[in-house]
Amino acid sequence: MLFPLLAVMLKEFRQTFRDRRMVAMLLVAPVIQLILLGFAVDLEVDHIPTVIVDLDRTRESRELGAALVADTTFSLVGYEPDPEQAYRYLERGTAATVVVLPVGLARDLVRHSPVTIQVLVDGTDPNRAQVASNAAAQFFAARAMTTSVDRMAQALAAQGRTRTLPQIRLLPRILYNPRLKSAVYMVPGVAALVLLAVTTIVTAMGISREREDGTLEQILVTPLRPLVLLLGKCLPFALIGLVDVWATLTVGSYLFGVPIRGSFWVITLATLLYLFTTLGAGIFISTVSQSQQQAILGGIFFFMPAILLSGFMTPIENMPHWLLPLTYLDPVRYYVEVLRGYLLKGSGFADLGQQLGALAAIGVGLITVSALRFRKRLG
């Protein structure tokens, strides 16, 4: 069994590397896709274009508006005296936030009266709108707290009391991703998706192409068992997939500062189990496809739900409850969790045992079903 298997693998390697376009698709494209997606998929929200409507026109209102746009969260587009004109900025899309400082702001501050500041936020981009709303609320709450503390200190000083006000200091410590870089969070997911696209679609297309060309039937004339033929076609792509994983992780670490903290054997085993699922899916797609075009469409049909259900960009906990059971059947979910735990936290076999077990179960199931259908189609 070993020599026929090696012969089929050697034939697959020769056929693959004879086509330069296929080599570029398997080895070069994953790295390029990682670089492009790593830079393009950025969840950090800053420099939100902001218009300030200063209806009070006092020193206090000007200082408050200047302090709001002093950091990188808000970026000043301009001052507008008329709220209606400022609203036009939101309609045209040239601003995402309008802050209206009301008439009498300085007077109310002196009188210790409540001050209402209106913040209009463009909600077409929910992520940016949420960040803008939270940032504005935190800024004005911090200013109100600072103003109150200063007044209390002045009142105590006026009474001749030197006792200092109690203070609470918050010392947050962010683990695993201290600078909160979105690329560190996104690159492991991108690597999983790139590997999914390469192995699933290429495998489905390769077997469908051989069936169209008639070479698959020629191989069947030889005394090869269907299982040997199936393994011989899958193992070369599994080895290429391992190369792709380490290439993308190396590039991700160099370009985006993604740490690599885990064991080599953890990620190797996880990748092999993941490749069983993606290659099994590719074989299954090829068995239900009559042509390469159908294989491509089948690969896309499998690819898109796998991405959306993986938690790659949005937390799985935020999905509807009726959709959550489907995520347990998605191998991409478990591999993304393994990559993030391995790269960012240095998780080992004990920490990732549940994910590795799920990948093994899904992989065995897909390979078994695909092998049975493959043998049936050959028969």
Characterize this entry briefly.
By secondary structure, the chain is mainly alpha-helical. The protein folds into two domains: 2-42 and 182-378, no CATH class; 48-158, abc type-2 transporter like fold, CATH 3.40.1710.
Description of the structure:
This protein has 379 residues and is mostly helical. It folds into 2 domains: 2-42 and 182-378, no CATH class; 48-158, abc type-2 transporter like domain (abc type-2 transporter like fold, 3-Layer(aba) Sandwich), CATH 3.40.1710.10. Helix content is 66%, strand content 6%. A 4-stranded mixed β-sheet has the order 2-1-3-4, with helices on both faces. The two termini are 20 Å apart.
SSE inventory with pairings:
Elements lengths: L1 H17 L1 H21 L7 E7 L4 H10 L5 E6 L3 H10 L4 E5 L3 H6 L7 E4 L4 H33 L23 H32 L1 H6 L5 H31 L7 H24 L4 H17 L15 H4 L3 H15 L7 H26 L1
User: How much strand?
Assistant: 5-15%
Q: What shape does the CA trace take?
A: elongated
Number of E strands: 4
| Overall tally of structural domains | 2
**What is the succession of H and E elements?**
HHEHEHEHEHHHHHHHHH
Q: Biggest sheet: strands side by side, in what order?
A: 2-1-3-4
Q: Whole-Å distance between the termini?
A: 20 Å
**Spans with pLDDT under 50 lasting ≥5 residues?**
none
Q: What structural class do you assign from the helix and strand content?
A: mainly alpha
What is the arithmetic mean of pLDDT? Answer: 83
Tally of helical segments: 14
Tell me about the biggest sheet?
4 strands, mixed
Q: Helical proportion?
A: 55-70%
Rg (CA only):
29 Å
